[in-house]
Design brief:
Order of helices and strands: HHEEEHHH
Largest sheet: 3 strands, antiparallel
Number of strands: 3
Strand order of the largest sheet: 1-2-3
Radius of gyration: 21 Å
Helix content: 40-55%
Strand content: 5-15%
Number of helices: 5
């Protein structure tokens, strides 16, 4: 089965996808923008237009698209342990390491804030 072309994908989107915070009349009249690729801080639409992704994929791609080191790191983790919950006194290596990193960053931020407050 061939993947649908841009017009087909836009029709599927119009007919079946519920977009958040959307004027559905305008969406029905104008159609949606189809983003087909991304690299670094840019996205590309089905017309080949390269656009600055100023919203960073709605604030979840703030390090940029297509970062190979992030792909490699995620791939290694997905192969080892994609996810496990922390209920019932359970943890996993990434969760424990992230907790320590977060604590260290918070401590550094608190020290910086205290220094600024005491020097004024």
């Amino acid at each position: 089965m061939r993947p649908p072309d841009a017009a087909g994908l836009k029709a599927l989107d119009r007919d079946h996808y519920l977009h958040p915070s959307t004027d559905f009349k305008a969406l029905g009249d104008e159609g949606s923008r189809l983003i087909t690729a991304a690299n670094g801080i840019y996205i590309e639409d089905d017309g080949g237009r390269r656009l600055l992704d100023a919203m960073a994929g709605l604030w979840c791609v703030n390090l940029g698209h297509g970062r190979q080191e992030l792909v490699d790191t995620a791939s290694r983790q997905l192969q080892q342990l994609p996810y496990y919950n922390s209920f019932f006194n359970t943890t996993n290596p990434p969760a424990a390491a992230l907790a320590e990193t977060t604590r260290r960053l918070q401590a550094r931020g608190a020290a910086i804030t205290a220094t600024k407050e005491t020097s004024t």
